[in-house]
TrEMBL record:
InterPro entries: ATP_synth_I. GO terms for cellular component: plasma membrane. Keywords: Cell membrane, Membrane, Transmembrane, Transmembrane helix. This is F0F1 ATP synthase subunit I. The chain crosses the membrane at residues 12-30, 36-54, 75-94, 100-120. It is found in: Cell membrane. Pfam families: ATP-synt_I. It is a multi-pass membrane protein.
Length: 126
């Protein structure tokens, strides 16, 4: 299965949302607080990346390559602001949030899913 363009972007975002659910369910073993903290952190990563993908590639026109750099830069800034706001709202609104799990699950979803897709693609090409 070779993923290209919007198909690859959609697949990565869907996998990140799935990973968020799996991390949240897996952390239920350690209690509701741990599960909620992990799920929220993972879901922040998936949501911010989905927003970035939407802003960057939905209206992309191959005839306008000079505009893509500005669109990517703007979308990345908006993603970082959105991520900061979501983390801030989470910390302010949930008294018993586990910061380690919140940030750890964010990092796992941010890094692991695209890495898995790259490894899968490399195996398909070899």
């Amino acid at each position: 299965m070779q993923l290209t363009g919007n198909s690859q972007i959609r697949t990565i975002v869907v996998l990140q949302i799935g990973a968020s659910l799996i991390l949240g369910l897996g952390l239920l073993y350690f209690g509701k607080n741990a599960a909620l903290s992990g799920f929220i952190g993972a879901f922040i990563a998936a949501t911010a990346n989905g927003y970035f993908a939407f802003r960057s590639f939905v209206h992309y026109r191959a005839q306008q390559p000079e505009k893509i750099a500005g669109r990517l830069f703007g979308a990345e800034i908006q993603k970082m602001v959105m991520t900061g706001i979501l983390f801030g709202l989470t910390i302010v609104n949930f008294d018993s949030v586990n910061i380690g799990l919140l940030l750890g699950c964010y990092l796992i979803v941010q890094v692991a899913v695209p890495l898995i897709v790259l490894i899968y693609q490399d195996r398909q090409h070899s």
